Structures are given as C-alpha cells and as structure tokens.
C-alpha cells in the first residue's frame, strides 16, 4: 500500500519581484601587501665630457691704486692676474691698500689689459664713537665688595689703603688676613 502526502506538493515557481534598495556600503578592508620591487635596469653609457672652462680670474695681490671710471692700460702681469685675462670676464680686486673692493670687466687684452670698473666699494666703515671709559681697578674692587663683604688675602696691607673704603681686620685662625668692609 502506498501513502500519498498531499500537503507536501509544491506548486510552480512564481515571477521574481522587483529589486530592493541598495544597502549601506560596508567598511573598506585592509590594504594588501606591497609586491616585490623589480630589478634595476642597466645603466646607460656616459656621455662625452664637455670642455673645461678657464679658472676664475683672480688678482693675486692687493692693488695700491683706486679706479673710479674707465681705466688706463696695465700690463696684466703688473696687475698680478693668476692667468691671462679674456675680454668680457669680470673680476674682483682689493684696491686702496685693501680698504676697497673693486668689481670690474676686462674690455681689452694683449700685452696690456684694459678694464672697466662697475663698483669700487669701501670696506672700511666710519669710525665709531669713543666708548665710555671703564672703572678703575679701585672702583671695580669696591663695587665687587659692598659694605659687609669679607676679603681674604695673604697681604698685611689693609685693602682700604690700596682700593679705598673702610676695612677692619678680623681675628682668625686661618692662614692669611681677613678684612671686613665696614664703610
């Protein structure tokens, strides 16, 4: 005999309903590990080295003169340049016995060189005011030892004789002499 269960029979599947609203976005997950660094590529060929320029034009001694405008010709060795100058170069030079700094440009070369100064600035400022005269040794000693101060010395001379002020010698078992300023 066969049993038939009528309550377990499923009917045909129905249509899908409309899609619901999208939910709130969740938190971002942790970042993944960084991958390994790739190999470094081969180094390219070095290019050709360019030409070396002239060394800086330097006057190697202090000049005694003082130039204010276009200058006369001077033998470049007399000016003691470190090398033969080239037209268009600029240089600094100490002039007036080292009291001025001149900035100039070479305008002609050859056995003699001509240069045009652009500035000749004094490096010596005006003389300052004379400062106050300081205290004498006696004034400094008295200022450092106000009334009531103790002065310990190996000298038998009362400090009042040397520096001023009134001092009395104190009895002591210590070596030397101890004086106290009283006025």
From TrEMBL:
<feature type="region of interest" description="Disordered">
    <location>
        <begin position="1"/>
        <end position="49"/>
    </location>
</feature>
<dbReference type="Pfam" id="PF01391">
    <property type="entry name" value="Collagen"/>
</dbReference>
<keyword id="KW-0176">Collagen</keyword>
<protein>
    <submittedName>
        <fullName>Collagen triple helix repeat (20 copies)</fullName>
    </submittedName>
</protein>
<dbReference type="InterPro" id="IPR008160">
    <property type="entry name" value="Collagen"/>
</dbReference>
<feature type="compositionally biased region" description="Low complexity">
    <location>
        <begin position="16"/>
        <end position="45"/>
    </location>
</feature>
């Amino acid at each position: 005999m066969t049993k038939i269960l009528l309550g377990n029979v499923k009917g045909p599947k129905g249509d899908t309903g409309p899609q619901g609203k999208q939910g709130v976005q969740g938190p971002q997950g942790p970042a993944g590990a960084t991958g390994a660094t790739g190999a470094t590529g081969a180094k390219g060929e070095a290019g050709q080295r360019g030409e070396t320029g002239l060394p800086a034009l330097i006057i190697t001694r202090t000049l005694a003169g003082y130039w204010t405008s276009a200058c006369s010709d001077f033998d470049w060795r007399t000016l003691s340049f470190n090398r033969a100058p080239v037209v268009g170069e600029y240089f600094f030079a100490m002039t007036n016995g080292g009291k001025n700094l001149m900035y100039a440009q070479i305008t002609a070369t050859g056995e003699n060189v001509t240069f045009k100064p652009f500035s000749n600035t004094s490096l010596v400022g005006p003389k300052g005011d004379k400062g106050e005269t300081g205290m004498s040794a006696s004034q400094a000693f008295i200022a450092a030892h106000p009334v009531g101060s103790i002065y310990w010395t190996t000298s038998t001379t009362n400090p009042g004789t040397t520096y001023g002020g009134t001092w009395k010698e104190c009895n002591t078992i210590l070596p030397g002499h101890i004086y106290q300023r009283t006025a």
